[in-house]
Amino acid sequence: MKLLLIGFACSHILLITGLYGLFFRRDNLIITMISLEIALLGSATLFALAGLMLGDLSGLIMFLLLITLAGVESALGLALVISYYRLKTSIKWSALAALRG
Fold first, then answer.
1. Distance between CA atoms of 97 and 55, rounded to whole angstroms?
2. Given a cut of 80, is residue 12 above it in pLDDT?
3. Cβ neighbours of residue 34 closer than 8 Å, sequence gap 6 or more
4. How far is the C-alpha of 78 from the C-alpha of 84, rounded, in Å?
5. Are the C-beta atoms of residues 8 and 46 closer than 8 Å to each other?
6. What is the mean pLDDT of residues 33-59?
7. How many CB atoms lie within 10 A of CB 54?
8. pLDDT band at 99 (very low <50, low <70, confident <90, very high)
9. Position 57 pLDDT exceeds 80
10. What is the C-alpha to C-alpha distance for residues 13 and 76, in angstroms, rounded to an integer?
11. What is the CATH number of domain 2-99?
12. What ranges do the domains of the chain cover?
């Protein structure tokens, strides 16, 4: 039980760190993507720990779905960032604002 509480605390720290990076550290696109990955990892860990604590399999299924979503989001986002960087040689958010049409 004590190990589950430590796991819940660590996953909350991951989630809060990721959300902080998403909302307050918007320097460039890579930092935003890393913060999103950390937030997804924290929420996935919360689902897995809740499933273990309740003895339910649905928490682990949600964990697998969130990890899969995070992997797909990371691959597609990184591909878009690399192609944009090759085009404009900058990945700052201020340069991305010029894309609005």
1. 47
2. yes
3. 21
4. 10
5. yes
6. 91
7. 10
8. low
9. yes
10. 26
11. 1.10.287.3510
12. 2-99
